[in-house]
Amino acid sequence: MKEKLLEKFRELYGSAEGVSVYFAPGRVNMIGEHTDYNGGHVFPCALTIGTYMAVKKRQDRKLRFYSMNFEKLGVLESAIDGIEPEDAAEWTNYPKGVMWAFAGRGFLMDCGLDMVIYGNIPAGSGLSSSASLEVVTGFMLKEQYGFAVSNIDIALIGQYSENNFNGMNCGIMDQFASAMGKKDHAIFLNTADLSYEYAPLVLDGAKILITNSNVKHKLVDSKYNERRSESETALQELQEVIGIKTLGDLSEEQFDTYQSAIKDEIRRKRAKHAVYENRRTIRAVEALKNNDIALFGELMNASHVSLRDDYEVSCEEIDVLVDEAWKVDGVIGSRITGGGFGGCTVSIVKDEAIDAFRQQVGAAYTERTGNTADFYVVDIGDGPSVL
Ligand code: ADP
Ligand code: MG
């Protein structure tokens, strides 16, 4: 992979001498969806697929970007001064947003860069190609300019720039999972205070299988922002009757007792998901520690039902994938993963059932929706690195 980037770098910019190559992973979330901006827990893991970035410092203040995933756009140029979001900057608004956010914290680049980027995450599939691009940028800046930031800072800066530069009100999960990934472990993160714990996720006789619906519905970002504001309003209504900081502070019983304070039925369903999903996530990690993978799978399934019916972030295609997965012998659990409205499902599938899963779910998906699904057995990898 490194050689592939260096070759492109040479072709575009003349020489690959003194070029450094960095990597940051994408992520899959096992359980705890739409809880990260509600003060709840999440349980994601970094993947071995992600975003690569080859860079070399320049003598002037120019920035030159090239993505092997957006070849038609060619080399996109700008400068380190006066960075602001622009439609014409296309995808470079992600790395530029990170540079802008670093500058806002006093970390100033003293020269420009030539860059080549390549990602092997299927784009826009809910496996966080955007967060991995932000994290690889932050990690590169730290290494190239000697900025004194930790990997958690890099995650926070990435989230800050996606929120404030790219207009996507995401929580901290994606960037945290990418920046803090650990091979063969999932990260049990409490988003209320960023305390976290690594939990081994080596499945005896089973694998993590991601199914890509290959659909992404429009308005994903606006729907996401809408869910976020519905949850915030519900929280404010609950705060009239109980002293909580976030929805993640509530137990299911407390929610049931106080839910009537939420004046609108839709907002009540949104808040219910946030509260119950948080508790499910805590219970799922306990189940994993107790080697009770069957219970872990049941909680994944319940998570899907809640995201489908209460939080309403699924869609027909994803529901078909999950429904068909549940029918396959040897499937321990299956659910939507990521922001929703398309993208991927994550399933835990026994080794001997993987082939049957691909065949049955693939055929049924095409028959019921006319679309083709892709399947990936994934490995859990480490956070950002220098290659
Ligand atoms: P995801 O679920 O993959 O994070 P997003 O819509 O949040 O989906 O982010 C996808 C966007 O991130 C792309 O449209 C592009 O702008 C940017 N991006 C991700 N990976 C790359 C890459 N390798 N090269 C250029 N841009 C990328
Ligand atoms: Mg994203």
Question: What does this protein look like?
Answer:
This protein is an alpha+beta fold and 387 residues long. The chain starts with a helix and ends with a strand. The strands form three sheets. The chain has a six-stranded mixed sheet with strand order 5-4-6-3-1-13, with helices on both faces. A four-stranded antiparallel sheet has the order 10-11-9-12. The protein has helices at residues 2-13, 93-104, 129-145, 151-164, 173-179, 220-239, 252-258, 265-289, 293-309, 316-327, 354-369, and strands at residues 20-29, 41-42, 44-57, 62-65, 76-79, 113-119, 185-190, 195-200, 206-216, 331-337, 342-350, 374-377, 385-386. The model has no long low-confidence stretch (mean pLDDT 96). The protein is built from eleven helices and 13 strands. The longest helix has 25 residues, at 265-289. It is 41% helix and 22% strand. Magnesium ion is lined by residues 128, 130-131. Residues 51, 67, 69-70, 91, 94, 117-119, 123-130, 133, 338 line the site of adenosine-5'-diphosphate.
Let me know the largest β-sheet: 6 strands, mixed
> What share of residues are in beta strands?
15-25%
Low-confidence stretches: none
Class based on secondary structure composition and strand pairing = alpha+beta
Tell the overall outline. Answer: globular
Supply Rg.
Answer: 21 Å
Ligands and ions found = adenosine-5'-diphosphate, magnesium ion
N-end to C-end Cα span: 9 Å
Total helices: the number is: 11
Helix fraction, binned, reads 40-55%
Beta strands, count: 13
Spatially, the strands of the biggest sheet line up as 5-4-6-3-1-13
Order of helices and strands: HEEEEEHEHHHEEEHHHHHEEHEE
Quote the average pLDDT. 96
